Amino acid sequence: MAGRLRVEERGVPEPRAGEVLLRVTACGVCRTDLQIVEGELPVHRSSLIPGHQIVGCVERVGSGVDIKIGTRVGVSWVGGTDGTCPSCVAGRENLCDAPTFTGYDVDGGYAGYAVARADFVHALPDELDDLHAAPLLCAGIIGFRALRVAGVQPGEYVGLYGFGASAHLALPVLRSWGCRVAVATRGEKHRSFARRLGADWIGGPLESPPEPLDRAVTFAPSGDVVIAALGALRKGGVVAINAIHLDRMPEFTTIRCCGVSVRSAASPT
Ligand SMILES: [Zn+2]
Ligand SMILES: [Zn+2]
Q1: 269 C-beta neighbours (distance < 10 Å), count
Q2: Distance from the alpha carbon of residue 198 to the mean position of ligand 1, in angstroms
Q3: Closest by Cα among 10, 125, 34 to 74
Q4: Ligand 2 centroid distance, CA of 19 (Å)
Q5: What is the pTM of this model?
Q6: Cβ atoms 259, 235 nearer than 8 A
Q7: CA 49 / ligand 1 centre spacing (Å)
Q8: Which one of the ligands is nearest to 244 CA?
Q9: Which of 39, 113, 164, 224 is most buried, judging by how many CB atoms fall within 10 Å of its CB?
């Protein structure tokens, strides 16, 4: 659909069994949406409504759905899974072998109405308004998951390498856990943003904070950054690689890896 993004009138879709119809109140924009629209990702459907950070109110429900009309919910990139593949059975449905991606395999949220699987919508707390909830449904989920994969414990010293959509949402989470946060990133704009959000140390993408880190998450798509993060860890520390694409896989021969772990937090989103 590259170059063919357009506004058009469509009828309100009908929820099938197990689905809900949402009146969309907000939908975030993610880099993946742009890649789909620009044709940088394989085409899954010739005609598609993009958008996978949907906030909406349940307007109608299909048969077998037990959600009250009017409930405000969010829909994320993972719009459905088979529930039967080894990843799903192991509780890692984000790695499902047969997933349905919102705004890619099925129509997404840049519309007045959207249909979603009822078991893949998330109830949203009232204190979170629509515009603040929407980015949490992709960038927020990804950043939070990276912290989980890194095994961050309350009070630890955590490095964030790269400071875009996911990392800046992860920083307040870390602070709420009583963690100190080091941000290594290029560009004064990102650094001053990190400073405003309360980062304890801020440096360049390949710099190391003066004290060793307990954990680090790399968001930048660079092998050099992974090496820098590994070099900044304490013994037994963990680096979680969040970037889906790295420019190259790093070599580990030039640094002392004292029992450090590298974990991949990336899943196809
Ligand atoms: Zn996304
Ligand atoms: Zn599965």
Answers
A1: 20
A2: 25
A3: 125
A4: 19
A5: 0.88
A6: yes
A7: 14
A8: 1
A9: 113
